[in-house]
């Protein structure tokens, strides 16, 4: 009799996907702000979204993923084995 239990519950997998989406959105917000001409300065690369919001979204996504991995699923009693 084999026990086909996965290490993560389906709810944890959903939280991991949500964390990845939050991280990807942070990276997308960080894109851009450059200039095609190296002699022209573009102050848009130092805006609030790129310096504050996007790193916070990336850290939030990492935290969501860590919590999803570390959280023990309900009903997972080792004593019943």
Molecular structure report:
It is a single chain. By secondary structure, this protein is an all-alpha fold. It has one domain. It has helices at 10-30, 48-70. Helix 1 (10-30) packs antiparallel against helix 2 (48-70). The longest helix is centred in the last third of the chain and has 23 residues, at 48-70. It is rod-shaped. The mean pLDDT is 85.
Question: In a few lines, what is going on in this structure?
Answer:
With 81 residues, the protein is mostly helical. It contains 2 helices and no strands. Helices cover 54% and strands 0% of the residues.
Mean pLDDT: 85
Number of domains: 1
Give me the number of helical elements: 2
- Rounded to the nearest angstrom, the distance between the terminal CA atoms is 13 Å
Q: Main β-sheet: number of strands, strand sense, barrel status?
A: none
């Amino acid at each position: 009799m084999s026990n086909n239990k996965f290490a993560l519950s389906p709810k944890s997998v959903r939280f991991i996907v949500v964390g990845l989406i939050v991280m990807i959105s942070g990276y997308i917000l960080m894109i851009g702000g450059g200039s095609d001409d190296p002699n022209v300065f573009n102050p848009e690369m130092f805006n609030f979204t790129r310096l504050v919001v996007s790193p916070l979204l990336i850290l939030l996504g990492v935290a969501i993923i860590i919590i999803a991995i570390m959280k023990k699923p309900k009903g997972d009693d080792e004593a019943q084995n």
